[in-house]
Prior knowledge:
This protein has 21 helices and 2 strands. With about 525 residues, the chain is mostly helical. Helix 9 packs antiparallel against helix 18 (about 430-455), helix 17 (about 415-425) packs across helix 18 (about 430-455) and helix 20 (about 480-505) crosses helix 21.
Amino acid sequence: MASQNVSLLMPISALGIYLHAFFVSVTLGFPIMISALLYAWWRTRDEDYYRAARIATGVLAVNFALGAITGTLVEFGLVQAWPGSIYAVATVAFVPLASELIAFVGEIVFLVAFIVTLRWVKPWVSIALMAGYFAFAAFSGVLITMVNSWLNVPWGTGSLASVLNPYLPEYGPAAFDTRVLIAVKLALVDSLLTSGTASQILQSPETARAVGISLNDPFIALNSPYGLASAVHNLTAAVIIGMAMAAVAFAYKHLRTGDPKYVKLLRSFLPILLILLILQPIVFGDIMGKAVAAFMPTKFAMMEGAYITKQNPLVSFLAYGDPSIPISGFDEFRKKCEMLGDTTVGAVAAQVLPNYTPSPSSNIKLKDLCMQGLTDAENRLAVINAAYYVKIGAGVVALAAVVGLASAVFNVGLLTRVVLTLSNRLGKRQLVFLLALLVVVGSVLPAALGWYVREAGRKPWTVYGLLTPTELVTPVPASPLIMAAFTAVFVTMALGGVYGMYLVASKPLLFVKLLRRGAGEEE
């Protein structure tokens, strides 16, 4: 039953996360765009900038509400669908998630203050309030990313993962009590073997008393180098997507109306978008790639299509700083699994746990567990490899498009002659819209595929190298009909929210009229 639940719940969990991520991108990208518009209004006193900032603020307000709703659904859904994750929530995730609640309150305070004081205070005060909102929104994103990063790289578990899977590195200082972690793992495996389910035992008070306190440093997730790299990379991607969406909206209005003011509005924040799209692959993406190579060898092999160990001087130089280092493949990982010999789970447990009593998992060989994990991971290699390189290609398209867009809008740059030639063939308005659209596609596609590579690439583990989905999924049967109903609710809510944002952006007076009608007010 557990494996069936995993197959049903994993897609709907992913859908909820992706929908929430869409609204988060607007939450992080729009504040920078709005601030740029307000700065231009401050400097020029051109009312076009203010009106655009005011409309964008309405879109941001609707989006914030949708982000809060979808985020709440995702968090509750994860705990309900994956109740075994309560172990992480109660240990490494406790401090980050508790802090995230504070960040959420900060977002509300600054956004409300910005909205109610807009135009009643000096522009620099409004910009400062929006900066406060962005700071809390970014802090919230960092905290959530750090929790997810611990699932990818369980920092603070020391050498435990490498004991179970010898090809893995050590994960930082031993902030966990290894004996407790082993006791938890044994309890989960034993429960799977005897009853076919496991996650519910982590909620049992008897289990908690039996295994004891596991975490010595509640801040350990915030100290992970992989988590820090992930936070910068993911948040930059979200900001880029949000700003790219604003750019294509202005480009579309310019295409439809021919009004040059929309190009003027686009100029106010396009340089920021250009800089971020240059920094993302060259700096932040490079740091992220090095972190994956260092801490997640199976995922890196999947990304590079390394069924067997191979040489790729360019990739090795980017990942390891040395072009002569080979990319380890699954053949090498299996050799390291073979080194475990006939060592059993019980033999390891007896060395670590006092008064260990043999259990159903005692005779399982560590080598067999190690090999099974590799087989499950290798089965995903082809799709992860394809997704990763499509992601890279789409990112190149976004970078080329934003350079072309900047050249078209500012009439400067190396591509100006090419842009002018295309303008003569397509028309200037059509070219600006096409380039802006390519920036959006080239930003959204890498983010979506990058998240897929991030999450599917750590499977078959929910906590990389330590815990599997079957150990953490709910034992309650997941009905396909109920899953379809949940999916329909998620999609309907998201589409309705996007339509509401469209109304605010394109027909703000109609949106206000609909709000008054919904509140029962006279028109």
